[in-house]
Each structure stands twice: as C-alpha cells, then as structure tokens.
Amino acid sequence: MFRSLVPDLPCADVAATLEFYRELLGFVPSLTLPADPPYHWALARCGEVTLMFQTLSSLTAEFSSLRAGTAGGALALYLETDRALALYERLRDRPELAQPLKETGQGKVEFALTDPDGRVVVLVGDRNPSCQGACPPVQSAP
Q: Could you please report the per-residue DSSP string of the chain?
C-alpha cells in the first residue's frame, strides 16, 4: 500500500542544512528550488533514504497549521546504517556531536549529531557489522 516515507523537515536555512547532511552524512542533493541559493526547498538522498528540507516560512505558507512550530521542532531522526562505526570515527571530534558512541544492546551501537536546525540525528548500526544483527549480547565490565 505505502511505498516510502519522506519527511519534509523545516529549516531556518535550507543551504546550511543541506550542507550538513551532505558533508557529514553523504546525502546527495537531487533537486533544489530555486536552482540557485537561497533555496526554499531541497530534496536529498543517501542510499534508500530520502529527505526533504524546506524553509519554515515556505512550509507554513503551504500548511498554515504548522505556523506555531519552529525550525527543527522536537524531532529525532534515527538513521540505520552499516557504517555506524566508520562514521563515528570520522565525526567523533566534530562540534555537532550530541552523544558519543554507546552500545544499546542486541549488538547495536549508536551516536547522535545535532543538525543546524536543532534536530537530533541518531546513527544506529551493528556493533560488529559482520554479525548482520545477530551478535551475542554485550558483556558487562567487571
């Protein structure tokens, strides 16, 4: 019945938000409106994940019920990846790091970044990618 879910994320500055997702997470811009900055809307993809970014003013002009909102709002994005450990090694010293790498159980690890609009972006992956989600439980330290 449904084929996909693409969040339309409100932004204060679409170009800055697009750059964050491109530089840090590898998203590739597919379309921007207008074609040159300043943008009021953009579509970006990474693998099978698609995100839309839209200025808050443009979004509230389209959906007046969102006028009370703020760019970013109370939203966390969880992105599952097979590269969580490699991404963490590359991003661990960035000022955008909101939460260091931690184990969550069932062989999973996660860390979090904060995007330019204040959204929490959590990257989740296997502690040992070769386990394919079936790693033994993490042992507690003595």
A: -------EEEES-HHHHHHHHHHHH--EEEEEESSSSSPSEEEEEETTEEEEEEEHHHHHHH-GGGTT--SS-S-EEEEE-TTHHHHHHHHTTSTTEEEEEEEEETTEEEEEEE-TTS-EEEEEEESSGGGTT-PPPPPPP-
